[in-house]
Design goal:
- The chain is mostly helical and 336 residues long.
- It has two domains: 3-218, Up-down Bundle (Alpha-lytic protease prodomain-like); 224-308, Alpha-Beta Plaits (2-Layer Sandwich).
- It has helices at residues 3-31, 34-59, 75-104, 113-141, 146-152, 157-185, 189-218, 224-234, 270-287, 303-308; strands at residues 240-252, 255-264, 291-299.
- The chain has a three-stranded mixed β-sheet.
- Strand 1 and strand 2 form a beta hairpin.
- The longest helix has 30 residues, at 75-104.
- The radius of gyration is 27 Å and the shape is elongated.
Length: 336
């Protein structure tokens, strides 16, 4: 995801949510609808969330320091996680409480044209925001389904905005249904039921966001496509004969760490191996531009360890791949 694309979607959602929040709160004051109050708090919480995403994007651009040598790219994950907390507590829990209270003590809705008019306006505004998020997401989604895009995306902003906008649209429909049924039946309980449904919806979306963002915070590897490109770029078939083991880790949405132990021929000099490593790093960066931190450690392929199903020096004990072994074993001596 490009930073500009994510920012455009966030700003569009922020403008829409601020205008909608004001309109909903005015409608609540004139009509007394609990659905409108819950929706105004929902839109206000969403506006704060977009502010958090913008702040996280700005902080993530800071230069690396001795204390944080890999930079601040994960700031974007932290602020996206805060979004899920705000959505759960301020949006979801408040709406559940408000809905429960209005079901126990239903209020009559007055000036019905206020909530209905504002809800129609809000739906139009949210459709504009949702359309912008979809358009920006399609630039990086590729052939992935929407579910896979939300689950696998390494940049949190667009999935967060997509889920927020989807939740807002569904919530507006629920609010419109609750207000409509309350007006049609003269029973304010329906307004409370609509508010309760909005709260449950927001809590579900908040939990989904929290789970996905927690995975990013813990550290995710590169996608399968990027891993295959890196593997193909490392091996030159000459000095570098294979990969003994490799690890990748996202330091941020657009910065990838690559660490690998590579198999080299036993009869190469230290200078030849160093040149081969430099060439491999250049090939990796050409194949996967976000691979900005690369550590390659040369080693001699151990056929006996591979036959035993373990990789020397690999803390995970993962099975060794099968790089082409040297014709004759020789002691590790990079200067030989």
């Amino acid at each position: 995801m490009s930073a500009s694309g994510g920012t455009k979607a966030i700003v569009a959602a922020l403008v829409a949510n601020l205008s909608i929040a004001v309109a909903k709160f005015v409608a609540f004051l004139f009509s007394g609808s609990s659905s409108m109050l819950a929706e105004s708090v929902h839109s206000l919480a969403d506006s704060g969330n977009q502010g958090l995403l913008l702040l996280g994007g700005k902080k993530a651009k800071r230069e690396a320091t001795p204390e944080h040598p890999f930079g601040y790219g994960r700031e974007r994950y932290i602020y996206a996680f805060l979004v899920s907390i705000v959505l759960f507590s301020v949006g979801g829990m408040f709406a559940v409480y408000e809905g429960y209270e209005k079901i126990k003590h239903p209020h009559e809705i007055t000036a019905w044209y206020w909530p209905v008019g504002v809800l129609i306006f809000a739906i139009i505004a949210e459709i504009f925001s949702f359309r912008t998020a979809i358009k920006e997401s399609n630039q990086t989604r590729g052939n992935r389904s929407w579910t896979e895009f939300v689950r696998r995306s390494k940049a949190p902003e667009l999935p967060v905005v997509l889920l927020e906008d989807l939740g807002a649209l569904v919530g507006l429909v629920l609010a419109l249904g609750g207000v409509g049924l309350a007006l049609a039946t003269g029973n304010g309980v329906w307004d409370g039921i609509g508010t309760l449904c909005i709260g449950i919806l927001l809590i579900v979306i908040a939990i989904i966001l929290a789970v996905e963002t927690k995975s990013l915070l813990l550290g995710e590897s590169a996608g399968l496509e990027e891993v295959e490109k890196i593997k193909a770029a490392v091996v030159d078939g000459d000095t570098v004969t294979g990969i003994i083991h490799m690890r990748t880790l996202h330091l941020g949405p657009e910065e990838l760490l690559v660490a690998a132990k590579i198999a080299v021929r036993h009869d190469e000099t230290a200078t030849e191996i160093a040149n081969a490593i430099n060439a491999a790093e250049n090939r990796i960066r050409e194949a996967v531009p976000i691979a900005r931190v690369i550590y390659l450690e040369p080693d001699i392929f151990n056929a006996e360890a591979a036959a035993a199903g373990t990789t020397p020096g690999d803390p995970s004990g993962a099975p060794a791949p099968a790089p082409a072994p040297d014709p004759a074993p020789a002691p590790k001596d990079l200067g030989h």
